[in-house]
Write a structure and sequence with these properties.
Length: 106
């Protein structure tokens, strides 16, 4: 083996390294294309579905609590109207969430 530094090719002049760099560049471009978010794709649909489920849960709880509070104020049944209607709001919210989750994806 010759240790003369003048016989060692610089990195940019070695054909194997150039070919490897070209392959790495092509693979990086493919990976960037694969990881690029798709416009209007599945991610947006999942995000909307998650927001809808959250809105159903919060709406059921808040709506049941409000209606129960109103019933308690007018009927004087505190805290039973609130508790019953809060429970009913939870049941309705979970029923809607189950209905949403059992739909077939579009």
């Amino acid at each position: 083996m010759n240790d003369d530094p003048s016989e060692i090719a610089p990195i940019g002049e070695d054909a194997r390294i150039d070919a490897l760099e070209k392959r790495l560049k092509a693979l990086r471009e493919l990976e960037d294309e694969r990881n690029r978010p798709k416009a209007g794709g599945e991610t947006d649909a999942n995000y909307r579905l998650g927001n809808r489920v959250l809105a159903e849960l919060i709406g059921g709880l808040a709506g049941g609590a409000f209606i129960g509070w109103v019933i308690d104020q007018f009927a004087g049944t505190s805290p039973w109207g609130l508790l019953v209607m809060l429970f009913m709001g939870i049941v309705v919210a979970f029923r809607n969430i189950i209905r949403i989750s059992s739909r077939r994806p579009e």
